[in-house]
Amino acid sequence: MIIGLLAYRPFIDPIDLHKFWFVLLVPLAFFLSIAYKSVRLDDLKELPRAVVSMTIQICFWMVVLGVASYLFVQHLAPLIAPK
Fold it and tell me: Are 54 and 36 in contact (CB under 8 A)?
């Protein structure tokens, strides 16, 4: 067990989180929002509200894009290109 941990190479052997990828969307959107808004805002007093707002927007639109992609692939694409 310890030898397996010592041989871990971060960029070559990634951690298997395929079952939990959607949970990582929130921290990714949060940190992206912090980086973007801290550069773009003139007054950093507005930073917390702007970061929360942008995080919610990113998560919302990612879900919308996922649903739209599912609907396109499962329902519209078979009509366009039948077997």
Answer: yes
Q: pLDDT, tens digit, for every residue of 24-65?
A: 999 999 999 999 999 999 999 999 999 999 999 999 999 999
Backbone φ and ψ of 15, nearest 5°: -70, 135
Q: Which residues contact 38 (CB under 8 A, 6 or more apart)?
A: 44, 47
Residue 43 lies in a domain: yes
Degrees (nearest 5) of the Cα angle 50, 36, 30?
Answer: 65
**Domain of residue 62, residue span:** 21-80
